[in-house]
Write a structure and sequence with these properties.
about 325 residues; mainly alpha; 11 helices; elongated; disordered C terminus
Amino acid sequence: MSDTPTSTDLETAMHASHSQSAVSSLEKNRKTLLICALLAVIAIGAFVIYTQLQEQKRKEAASAFSAAVSSGEIEELDQVVVDFPGTVAAGNALLSKAEILLNRNKPADAVQVVETFLSNHPKHSQVGQAHFILASIAQKSGELTEAAERYQLVLEQDTTEAYHPLSLIRLGDLAAAGGDPQKAKENYNQSIQQYAGNQFITLAENRMRMLAIDSPPVVEKPTPPPAPKPAEEKPAEKKPAPADKPAPAAKTAPAAKPAPAAKPAPAAKPAPAAKTDPEKKEAPAPEAEKEVTAKPQPAQKQEAQPAQKQTAQETEATPQKAE
């Protein structure tokens, strides 16, 4: 046999040499390897412990958040934010607080709370909800441009897509209000077709029907005729006051009728001439003269008194007629 080593022998010798060097290397670095293995075990154990602690903390935060939401008290929601800062529950507590403030008609306070949420929880899963709340507040306040920008942020940052369908409908409403029915129709269609089965499909379809209804032609209001100029008022003519009627003249009493003249007494018949008797004296004169001088006064008084009474009555009646 030849003593020359074959290739197989060489390979075997090389393997043996490598094995010896590897063993010697392991023996030299055994201490280092043991230290690395120990560190790996410690790291894994620390990670497991940290994960368990975080899970426990998450559960406690979630439980505290649920209790605060059930109570509906803002103070309890604030306590969740203080006790569990940076957690998902803390972010949820801020959004719930904002919704309560909106229900209490305090939109300005709600805006501040939502802005705090966006600042402290930029990667929270409910960032889209935060932008949707701000967009709704802006739309109700009449700030339509800001509202449209916020709804667009919902579409870009809402990873859950929960608020996408309603945000598209709101964008369509804003476009229709701005006089762009074509843009409004596109937004409504996208809400229906891209998010099939969402709970707002009926609302989007109703909006589409409203767009399909032709608006009645606008008739310009006729210009009213100019108002007639008011007639110049002529000064009122002063009518002369009616002259006072003269008082009726008092009726003069008729003159009293003169009393009829007393009839002269008939002349006394001359007595027959007495026989002359020289012895007898002359007889006295007859008493016929007494009858001649009879007083007519009673007749005169009876006629004069009625005339005087009549005159007095007419005199008293005259002022009464004049009045």
